[in-house]
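Protein record
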Amino acid sequence: MTRGAGRRRLLILGGTSEGRALADAVETALGETYEAVTALAGATRAPAPTAGTVRTGGFGGPEGLAAFLRDRAIDCLVDATHPFAARISAHARMACDATGTARLLLLRPAWPRHRDDDWIEVADMAAARDAVAARGGRVFLTTGVKDLAAFSDLPDCRFLVRLVEAPKKPPPLDNHDLVVARGPFAEADEIALMRAQGVDLLVSKASGGDSTHAKIAAARRLGMPVVMVRRPPAEAGPRVATVDAALEWLTAQAASP
């Protein structure tokens, strides 16, 4: 859509299903009010399609992001990054504070713990590594490529690694099999995969969302323990859990002086 006179400028920090859904919703419902740009970090070589303008690559820290907000006359920023993307969320807060840009955090709800879940909750990847070392066996790693190195010194474990796309370099694991697949996943398929691969233990971040919850439900059905890495604390400031609520916030921002 071409830019119309008087439209406000919105920056979406994306890379998540919520970010894509928000970009779609803004174009459909608020296209006469907002001109949106979605920023992607560039970690995925072939990201899912996103409506509107897409910018790929970092900003150069909070100072670089602040400069972008000023140069592009951004009115509002919605941080729809992954719940574990703590650094960019901190940079967004600092940049918006420095420029006076309205900021909203669109944060998906965490998965609730079911009474039948067998979760080993840990604070970080180092603690997850220790929990895996204590149990051993066939371990299903679903934490993303950046966190695989935490498990590189466990040669006695047999890993099943799932990534969105094939890595540029082989995973730093002595004994592993690789599955390349992009969610959403179905519970029945996750059960079949875990059974076929002889998985004893699942390792997951407490990411929340519907796209990958099936693995948690599958582990519950199979009576399988899950090493669950807790989320980092969310940044302070206005926060919503749904795209609809983010649209309401944007509508209110557009109506304010």
